[in-house]
Specification:
FAR_NAD-bd, NAD(P)-bd_dom_sf, Thioester reductase (TE) domain-containing protein, alpha/beta, 13 strands, Rossmann fold, FAR, alcohol-forming very long-chain fatty acyl-CoA reductase activity
Length: 359
């Protein structure tokens, strides 16, 4: 029986990973480290996971505190029992303030590493980074690269970079697999997603312009938009976590066939509004308008999201594709998932729980 510890529950990606793991395992015990403020929601989500062959246990804790603020009784059990740790807890907001991001993403990861060192039978740490630790680098970004003196678009990218530095520094002592996803969207088959952030902000923007006679492009350049469905991320991660040869490796779970930003924008406009974009509204004007909070809130778009329309990077995922080839797990292209994505958005666009807080 495998014994697992997850941070980041009841977040969407952690929840999807737990669900996938429960499907794969014949028998397992899963500890879920949950913030006190998230206990009620975690219990609600856990009640929906009807897997009677899996033992679930919620552990109250906080990664920003030493020993993750787990009480001594639970600490001893976890140190003795846990074999796999999936560390997903992080701040993912592109507009997050630096001190908050640093406390959770960097100090939190540092605390998790120190905690893990006391686990007796650890087989693997699976750490969730992001492909965007590459920051503002241009050209091809390889999985084995990390520190190339890059600068960053926002505090999210920068603190995730420093967090991965912490993880890689300990890889000789701790058996580790690092996962770097691209921009995660909903399930390729159902469209299910937790929040309408990232590319969904473009749908928010288009929805606000639904009565406009002209839908302009937001940028004249057509750069790579690397979006990946969440089901690819979870299936690939579970496979890589249980493959012996993937210890001490880094994997870009990015789309091997990324779409261009203009093509993606046109596809979303067609699926949502049945319109074709025409002309260009300069990106610098869009950013200027989004400097006003009332416009950001009305459009439901963060200013920082527009920076990814100028991202001139290609995230090589050869290592991941090579290992996943034996599993049959493949990443769906955006063209084949956009309809499901938009239909889910249409159905849930007025659900307040799906909206992110725009400040």
């Amino acid at each position: 029986m495998g014994v697992y510890l997850f941070t980041g529950f009841p977040g969407f990606l952690a929840k999807q990973l737990v669900r996938e793991l429960a499907k794969k395992e014949k028998e397992a015990k899963i500890y879920l480290l949950v913030l006190p403020s998230q206990l009620e929601k975690a219990n609600e989500e856990l009640s929906l996971l009807q897997y009677h062959h899996i033992q679930f246990e919620i552990i109250e804790g906080d990664i920003t505190k030493e020993m993750l603020k787990i009480d001594s009784t639970n600490l001893e059990r976890i140190y003795e029992e846990v074999e796999y740790v999936f560390h997903l807890a992080a701040i993912y907001d592109l507009a997050v303030k630096k001190d908050v991001a640093y406390r959770v993403n960097v100090i939190g990861t540092r605390n998790v590493i120190q905690f893990i060192k006391k686990i007796t039978h650890l087989k693997r740490l699976i750490y969730f980074s992001t492909a965007y630790v590459a920051g503002l680098r241009k050209g091809t970004i390889y999985e084995y690269e990390l520190d190339r003196n890059q600068s960053f678009r926002n505090h999210y990218e920068e603190t995730k970079f420093w967090a991965e530095v912490e993880v890689q520094r300990e890889m000789e002592q701790i058996p580790t697999t690092i996962i770097r996803p691209g921009i995660v969207i909903g399930d390729s088959l159902t469209g299910e997603t937790a929040k309408f952030d990232g590319p969904y902000m473009i749908l928010n923007f288009l929805q606000r312009l639904r009565y406009s006679p002209i839908i302009p492009y937001l940028h004249k350049e057509n750069v790579e938009l690397n979006v990946v469905p969440v089901d690819y991320i979870v299936q690939a991660t579970i496979f890589l976590a249980h493959t012996d040869e993937t210890t001490s490796k880094v994997f870009h779970l990015t789309n091997p066939n990324p779409i261009g930003t203009k093509e993606a924008y046109a596809l979303m406009a067609r699926q949502l509004l049945n319109k074709r974009p025409f002309g260009v509204f300069p990106l610098f004007l869009s950013k200027a308008l989004l400097s006003f909070s009332f416009i950001r809130r009305w459009l439901m778009v963060e200013k920082e999201a527009l920076d990814y329309f100028t991202c001139k990077s290609n995230y090589d995922c050869s290592e991941a594709v090579n290992y996943l080839r034996r599993s049959g797990i493949k990443c769906a292209n955006f063209n084949s998932t956009v309809d499901t994505m938009v239909q889910y958005y249409k159905k849930h666009q007025y659900n307040k729980e799906k909206r992110i807080l725009i400040k």
